[in-house]
Amino acid sequence: MSLEAIRQSQHQIDNDDLFSRLSSQMTGDKRKIIETSQWARDYVISLTGMSLEQLQAQPQKLAQEDQTVEKEIKNLAFQEYPTFIHAEKCRSDIGDNFAQMETQLEGLSQSLPDFEQLCRDFTAEAKLLTEEREKNEKVLENLDVLVDIFEIPQLMDTCVRNGYYSEAMDLTSHVSLLTMRYGNIPSIQDVREKVQRSSDMMLIQLISLLRGAIKLPAAMNVIGYLRQMNSFETENELRLLFLKCRDDYLNRRLDNIKKIGSTETELTKDWQRLGRDSFEYIKQYIDVIREQGFEIITQYSSVFSDDAKLYSASTDTKVGSTQLLTAGATLADYVAHILENMERKMDEHLINIKDISQISSLLTQLMYCGMSLGRVGLDFRPLFAIRFQNALLKLTQTLIDEAKKTFIDTINRAKTENIPPSQWASNKSNNKDAVDAATPGQTRQQLASQLIDYPVIAVFTNAILSLFNELRLLAPIALVQLITEYLDAAYLDIAQALKEYSMPYILATGTEKDNLKSDQNVLRAFASAYVRSCVPYLRQCLLDGIYANVYLDDVSITSENLESELEEILPSISKGSLTKVAESDHEASADKEILSSESVISKESATQIKEITPEEELSEDNSKEQSKEDSNEEEGDANGVDEFNKN
């Protein structure tokens, strides 16, 4: 570096130091102005380059210049006074305007963020409007297609209400495809929901169709629609639904029969009307079961495929076998349910029927029903045989008890009122010949002809024969032993009552015995007719006329017991009677006799067969008139014997 440059650099440093000292002596605004003024720096530099004389003359020079400048300013102010006034005004206005501008600028700066946000919002809204406009343009372009889609729910509802289920299923499938493709679109979801509501209504209508009268083709169509709807998880649920609906229809049909039933009859205890109503109810019940049972089983077998074919494709052996077992047992369980209801109804109503012919008619109808349902695998006939057998046995026992009660009540009334045997036991005035008349080993016609003189025995015989005539319509072989034993017990009860009544007459001695000899003969003849004619005759009618060629154990016990019970009353069998026994062995067999139409007791002989009350026997004044009336009224009592032998 040259010496000149070094000097200038040093001179510059000295000037800066001098300028700093000068400025440090000032305060306030002046110092800031001096420090920042380049003119001040230049003036200091120029001062350092002056000589001493120049520096000493500098203050005077500055004062002169100051006076000159001040004078010029005054002259200028005087000359340019309007200009200064205008400038001052402009300055004042500019100051005010700047203040207002500053305030407005501050407000503008504060409003700019909001304005910016509004601009953003406007931009967003404008974008949405643009998008909506584009959407509307697209909607307008595809208006026909959209109208078709939005009309699907209304069309679906119309199809369901009018029963066009096939078209409704097509619409449902179409909506399912739309949902798979455009499931995120709210309009498509709304259409799907509306269609689903119509589909639920269709499901209810289809199920209601199964609950009513429906033919096989319609049932197959309904089940096909239900399968397409996929409303059931398994096929077995659909089977259960079908059987439940058909069972509801069956129950409604059966409930209509109950209107014939007899709540009022049960309250009034009108057993005859109750039995008639029970007969009509069971008759119509069987008809409904035959018709609807055949229809349900046929429809079920036709609508649903074979279980093995249906579930053979199952990959899980355990699950597949369970499904197969459940599906295969569904129909069997339902059939068992129907049969349980039938058994309960039979047990409930058979006890009310007091007519064997009605029981026989119901059994025939039930067997026909079982044979009809047997074509579809429901032959239930063996299940009900024992029920009808028990009902028939109970009714038979009831009728036997009634006949026995009438016989025993007559004997007890005579015992209580001390009515002699001649007034009620026999119509004959002299029974001496009748003592040996009734002997065992005779034919049925011979035995029956000996009963016409004993009204009480004839009434009892006719009552039992009426029972036998009804029993011919329905005579279970299993009951032959039971009915025979029950009859034997009834015979013994009557014999015991007769023995109690007869003992005072048989045990009489001395003069009393002579006075009661006629009554003793009547009692012996009455007992002989009962034990040796009535009982064998009824036994032959039962075993030969109804249960021919049926093996029966202990056939002679009853005769031996009756003989031993009434041993003191019964007369001994004469030799002539024994001859008759030998001759009877050569007569026609019992099988031929029961089929003959020959009358055992003629109407003329039976005119006196009637139960005579003790009051009538005690009325001596009216005995002749009463005997004429009896001849006309008692003719019907022997009709039972005639009817049985004619049959």
Automatic annotation (TrEMBL):
GO biological process, one term: protein transport
GO cellular component: Golgi membrane; Golgi transport complex
Keywords: Golgi apparatus, Membrane, Protein transport, Transport
Cellular localisation: Golgi apparatus membrane
Compositionally biased spans, kind Basic and acidic residues: 621-630
Membrane topology term: Peripheral membrane protein
Primary site of residence: Golgi
Region annotation Disordered: where it falls in the sequence: 603-647
PANTHER family linked to this entry: CONSERVED OLIGOMERIC GOLGI COMPLEX COMPONENT 8 (PTHR21311), CONSERVED OLIGOMERIC GOLGI COMPLEX SUBUNIT 8 (PTHR21311:SF0)
Family according to the record: Belongs to the COG8 family.
Name listed for the protein in its UniProt record: Conserved oligomeric Golgi complex subunit 8
Organism whose genome encodes this protein: Mortierella isabellina
